[in-house]
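Quick illustration, no need to memorize.
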Amino acid sequence: MAPPPIAPTTADGRWLAAVCASRLLFNQIFVAYAAILPLLQEAWGMSSAQAGLVQSGWHAGYVVSLFAAGLIADRFGARRTFLAMSFAGGLAALAFAAFADGARSALALYALAGVFAGGSYTPVLAIISQRFPPATRGRAMGWYLAAGSLGYAIALGMSGTVVTWGGWRASLYVAAAAAMAGAFYGLWLMRGVPDEPHLAHPAAPALERIREVLRNKPAMKVVWAYTFHSWELLGVWAWMAAFLAFAAARGSGIDAKAAGLGALLAGLTHLTSMAGSLVGGHLSDSRGRTYVMLLMGSVSIACGFVFGWLVTAPLALLVGVGMLYNLAGIGDSSTYSTALTELVPARILGTAYAIRSVMGFGAGIVSPWAFGFVLDAGRGGGLSETAVWGLAWSVLALGALPGPLVAWSLRRMPESAAMAVGRR
């Protein structure tokens, strides 16, 4: 298992706050496309399936990024991996903002940005796991994910404002500039952060590390539960702003005003996902990792089965359900990351994160496209907009259904006692 970390101090708290600020800035690019999707769909003449495919391209690149980041971090260190990939991601985000002008170029450039973006995520989780003990590790990781959610909310709100006066390309530039600023801030705050203890010894070959993780049954249950969770969450993030923009337009066509309002309302729902990360992190320390997986997973699935059918409901009700959906959807995200630190040795933690990321974000590659496909198929079949949106959101919930079942089976394994100081 991981070597005992140094007891956290006030300086650790300040460092965590600074790392969270860096993530907040970098995460602006994560939802830059989804925030203005209806406008880009019109400007570039994309079908819903094509629009979803561009978002899927980001997730595909992100899968590559997270897998590479995990393997590279085990070999060269999480700090170096974080710095190198964050800067590359910021530059790729600027290229997307400057040169994307259609479905094909957007797919290629947004996927390229995704190829580097994972370096700002899992390597920092590895550093946090070394800096904070199990009793407070869930909360520390919850704060880090909450910062990402706040970044999403700010990005959506900012896009909703910027797009009304500067257009969609200005919105992309602002998000890319924020990501670049996050990379520079990360360079400053990583001064003096040591490399992990396991780097003092030669790393095992990558295939050997991968096999060791795959043979770890409780760890793989965490990975599978995360995979079903990601199918839903990444689909939610891809389509929330577009759904709320459609609802706000009330059948009159989505213009810049409706798209901006949809982005602002989606940003509001991301504020509650920030609360979800904090609540989930606290509960995972106090009640157990699988407790949070079961609770949050069940609530988010229930939201998915009803959300789309409310498309003609008052906006206040839609936003309220969307807020609960995002809160529960991300409420267990940090728990999967924390659980892996307690079930695999530190020397292969990066590899475990890499496998988790490939499977989880692999599901996230498909779900935005599947959502868009259902929209196109439903409209082509003459279904009402209520039925079309209801079925599309239900597809996300159906894909997430096995997650709580896997979490329950993990809870019943004796090895799960290693999590949350015995709270499972």
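The radius of gyration is 20 Å.
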